[in-house]
Specification:
about 220 residues; NADH Oxidase; 7 helices; about 35% helix; alpha+beta; five-stranded antiparallel beta sheet
Length: about 220
C-alpha cells in the first residue's frame, strides 16, 4: 500500500505537506511543527525579546469575554537549580528507596533544555458566560500559540507534565496563589540536530462533513 493510500485510510504517513500543493510560509509553519525530546534541545534558547514574542503569540489565543485564565513563568538562573532539587525531593518522597543515580537523572532532565516555561492557570469556576471547559480550551490554545511561535523562530519545543508538576512543593516554590494551578512546563531550545518529519494522520480521519439529518426532512 502506498503512503498516499495509507493516508486516505487515516493511517500515519511521513509528509503531510505534499498533499496540499503550494503553501504559504505561515501554513508551512503550522503543518511542520512537532514536539521534540528535551535531550535534543541545546543552547541558545530564546532571548528575552524572543521570549516576549512567544508570550505575545500565546495572547492571541481565543479568549471568550477576554478572559485569559493563564500566565507564564520563565524559570531562570538559580530558579532552575531550585526547581531541579524540588523535583528530586518529590521523587525521593514518593520512592524512599530510590537510588542516587536515579535522583541525579531527575535533576539532569530538569536542567536539559536552555529555556523552561511554567504554564499556570487560574480558572474562574463561576463565570456567568465562560464555563471551565472553555477556559481549559483557551489555555491549550495559548500553549499551542507559544509553541508555534517558537517553531517559527527556529526553536524546538515540547510540553511536559506529570504528577510532580502538580505537587504542593512546586506550587509553593513558584509562589502560586491559592486559586492557581500548575498545568505544564514547556521546554524550548535549539535543535542539536535535524529531526526527521514525524508520521502524521490524514485530516480525513478527523473531519466529518454533516449536511443535515435525512430522517428529519427539509
Amino acid at each position: 500500500m502506498s503512503s498516499a493510500q495509507s493516508g486516505s485510510l487515516g493511517l500515519p504517513r511521513a509528509d503531510p505537506l505534499e498533499d496540499f500543493g503550494p503553501l504559504s510560509p505561515a501554513i508551512r509553519v503550522l503543518l511542520s511543527r512537532s514536539s521534540v525530546a528535551p535531550k535534543t534541545l541545546v543552547a541558545p534558547g530564546p532571548n528575552h525579546d524572543e521570549l516576549r514574542l512567544l508570550i505575545a503569540s500565546a495572547l492571541r489565543a481565543p479568549a471568550h469575554e477576554g478572559l485569559r485564565p493563564w500566565r507564564f513563568i520563565s524559570i531562570e538562573g538559580d530558579g532552575r537549580q531550585q526547581l531541579s532539587r524540588s523535583f528530586a525531593e518529590i521523587r525521593r518522597r514518593q520512592n524512599p528507596g530510590i537510588r542516587p543515580a536515579e535522583l541525579a537523572m531527575t535533576w539532569k532532565k530538569t536542567m536539559r533544555a536552555p529555556t523552561l516555561i511554567a504554564v499556570v492557570m487560574r480558572l474562574v469556576e463561576d463565570h456567568p458566560k465562560v464555563p471551565p471547559h472553555e477556559q481549559y480550551i483557551a489555555i491549550g490554545a495559548a500553549v499551542h500559540g507559544l509553541m508555534l511561535a517558537a517553531h517559527a523562530l527556529g526553536f524546538g519545543a515540547i510540553m511536559l507534565s506529570g504528577n510532580r508538576t502538580r505537587d504542593s512543593l512546586i506550587h509553593t516554590l513558584l509562589g502560586l496563589a491559592a486559586e492557581e494551578q500548575m498545568v505544564v512546563f514547556i521546554s524550548v531550545g535549539t535543535l542539536a540536530k535535524p529531526i526527521p518529519p514525524k508520521l502524521r494522520s490524514s485530516p480525513a480521519a478527523y473531519l466529518q462533513i454533516w449536511q443535515g439529518n435525512d430522517d428529519l426532512g427539509t
